[in-house]
Design a protein that fits this description.
mainly alpha, 5 helices, 70% helix, 0% strand
């Protein structure tokens, strides 16, 4: 077997786009928009919706990953680096799930579901930084960006330096 299941391939690339979008939205739009700005509600609705979709799809991906056959782990010729690569993939799952959980905690504490989705008319909190899980969400976002960068660099190293056609494993075709 040379490739991952097509559902895993689809989820991988869909989640990659959604996670990057969520990180950009959170860091470049939400963080820079004051809570008093009426446009923040729409941005929060989009960010929260994407976050919930990411969390559900990541949990689904994890279940499918354990339930389907997979190609053998990529071999870089070093046992420690091979184990690190496997660990890094589990770290990606854990980081994304933790981001979703901390986002849900922020939303719950701040009463955001009623405000953002059900039009309660209440004002947003003056500052989300007063909410404890917000600090975790920000730290997780930074660490997740670093782990994603390492993941991309490792994939590029495999593909273009080692020339082991690693990209083909996470694409469609005969398994």
């Amino acid at each position: 077997m040379k490739r991952y299941h097509p559902v895993l391939v689809t989820l991988h690339w869909l989640l990659a786009a959604l996670v990057l979008g969520g990180l950009v939205m959170g860091g470049q739009v939400l963080a820079k928009t004051p809570n008093t700005d009426p446009a923040k509600l729409f941005s929060l609705k989009m960010h929260m919706s994407i976050g919930i979709v990411i969390l559900v799809l990541m949990l689904l991906r994890l279940v499918i990953r354990f339930a389907t056959q997979k190609p053998p782990h990529a071999d870089i010729g070093n046992d420690l680096l091979n184990k690190g690569g496997v660990g890094a993939h589990y770290m990606l799952y854990a980081m994304v799930i933790a981001m979703g959980a901390s986002g849900l905690a922020i939303a719950n504490i701040a009463g955001l579901p009623a405000i953002v989705f059900f039009g309660s008319g209440e004002a947003l909190p003056a500052d989300f930084n007063d909410i404890a899980p917000r600090a975790a969400h920000g730290i997780l976002a930074l660490v997740l960006k670093l782990v994603i960068a390492a993941h991309v660099l490792a994939a590029l190293y495999h593909q273009y330096v080692r020339k082991d056609s690693l990209f083909s494993r996470m694409w469609y075709g005969e398994r």
